[in-house]
Amino acid sequence: MAGFFSKSRITAGPDFNRWRIPPVSIAIHLCIGSVYAWSIYNPALTKTLGVATSSSGDWALSDVVWIFTVAIVFLGLAAAIAGRWLEEVGPRTVGVVAACCWGGGYVVGGVGIFLHQLWLVYLGYGVIGGVGLGLGYVSPVSTLIRWFPDRRGMASGMAIMGFGGGAMIGAPLKEYLLKLYYRAPEYLGPVGDVELVTEAGKRFVDSVSGLREVVVVGANDVANMIVAGPEGVYVVGTGRSGAGETFLTLGVVYFVVMFAAALSYRIPAEGWAPAGWQPPAASVGARKMISENDVHIDQALRTPQFYQLWIVLCFNVTAGIGVLGVAKTMMTEIFGTTLPGIVDGAFAATYVVMISVFNMIGRFLWASTSDVIGRRNTYWIFFALGIALYLSIPYTAQQVSIQPAVVWLVYFYAATMLIFTMYGGGFATIPAYIADVFGTRYVGGIHGRLLTAWSTAGVLGPLAITSLRDGAMADAIEELAATVDPAAFRDTFGAGLGQLGLLVEQKTVTIAKLMEIAPPGTVDPTPGLYNQTMVLMAALLGIALISNALMRPVHSRHHLQAQL
Q1: Does a structural domain hold residue 12?
Q2: 219: in domain
Q3: 80-84, 99-103, 496-500 — which one is most confidently predicted on average?
Q4: Quick one: pLDDT at residue 182?
């Protein structure tokens, strides 16, 4: 068995067609790239008990977003460790372990959903699945760069293109499975026909068997239902959101595809090069950053260039990853109330798919472009244009609140799609940037260690977007509650304004429900919940721009020949 997985067993012969490797690499990345469609799960995971809408016992959005964060953290940690291991054992072994971890992590997470144990979802999808992400990410990249030394940018773009496109397949597949397994909870009728009791901020109905907890779906909540249903009262714990079954199904599917792809890996023999190809001379222009010398994995950590690239990757990822984790929710909150006839759950799900499409296109397009204009110039474009686009989004949210119009939706859609081409392009270009700066011999190991920047970004991005959003939401609820008639508030929620904090904590009071009883002409604050986040992301891109501008070739004392 050890011989079957050894590097010597998968070393290709002289007549091997290198174009057989890209489909294998893309297949693995399509599977693990479905992590970018995580936001599809958010509505179902925050309604596992209430199903129609969130109940008091359901997980909050800030709770489930961090599962995505943990997965990204362990992606980077696993990639950092696996980089050197990959050099020793080869991509087949690493790919098989990745298949076991990613598929198995989904299964463990599914069990956690069924048992309503959040720690199991974190362990399964976040920790075990995150390790699978890291192992599955590094093996195709280093393998393709070795097969295509003549087209480094294109090679890394092909490998990582699949990761960016994973959500393109994963998002509609997840939506389909969630709706397939969805079961509506017991419906008791319109709210006016049901006698409700409020205790400790929760809503109940009195039945023969005692008090039964319920959730109330108002007109503003219908658009956010997993499967649209009538307004009214639903019994908690009587339906299924479909999340647990979806996790189990996808765990099996991803394992089978990744396992088969890993067995198809081949690596070039030592000293192999494409027929007729000679390494380019490092001279002027875009090629002056391309080194003809190699730097050892450990020595790379002693160079300032490693940490400059770390900052470039970290802040570029931070600016996009937080938005990715809440993409579906963000689209619904910014435009769902202002343009309800256009933006609903299906529209938001399609938005996630389109993010994946442009993410994927950007990975191949920008990485290939970097072969022509150079890596540093490519990142100049990413950061300068990205700053302008992020700063424009708060203005868009403000305008759509004041005067709802489709033009603001079109602009937001176009701006964010362009942002995600550069987000994906940053990932795809960084392996070639590493090869330019440190040489190709240890690119897999150095790339793995550099991906700790992704782990850090996986914390910074969601932390920024959830904490700033939660703070903005708390302020908005307080301001709205101050405008509401106290009698109308008590009639609607069964408790006075003095219990506002408790009612918010139990998810009985939300911005959407307050807007139903707010004075006419009140501006819905929901579209502005992400404004502070966008300004922060622009500032981070400014720091990355400076780091990239200071990039210079590695000093000769760090070259491998100088260390021997």
Answers
A1: no
A2: no
A3: 99-103
A4: 95
CA distances (Å), origin 100, targets 71, 78, 94: 15, 14, 10
Cα gap 358→36, rounded to integer Å? 12
pLDDT at 286 over 70: no
Question: For residues 40 and 38, what is the distance between their CA atoms, to the nearest angstrom?
Answer: 5
**What six digits make up the tokens of 339?**
């343009």
pTM comes to 0.72
H helices of 281-344, in order, are 297-300, 304-325, 327-335
Q: Which two tokens stand for residue 248?
A: 């189990």
318 near 540, Cβ under 8 Å? yes
CB 496 within 8 A of CB 486: yes
Number of domains in the chain: 1
- Closest listed residue to residue 523, CA positions, set 403, 407, 411, 405: 403
280 confidence band (pLDDT: 50, 70, 90): low
pLDDT at 68: 86
CA–CA distances in Å: residue 451 to residues 112, 146, 262, 424: 28, 19, 21, 14
Residue type, 126: G
Check the CA dihedral 62-532-357-129 and report its sign: negative
As given in the structure block, the two tokens for residue 80 are 């950092």
Beta strands in 351-509 (DSSP E): none
User: The tokens 């003809």 sit on which residue?
Assistant: 292
Please check whether residue 126 lies inside any domain of the structure.
Answer: yes
The CATH code of the domain that includes 426 is 1.20.1250.20
**Residue 425 near residue 285 (C-beta atoms within 8 A):** no
Domain that holds residue 326: 22-183+239-270+300-484+519-554
Residue 169 within a domain: yes
Do 267 and 12 form a contact (C-beta atoms < 8 A)?
A: yes
12/125 Cα distance (integer angstroms): 35
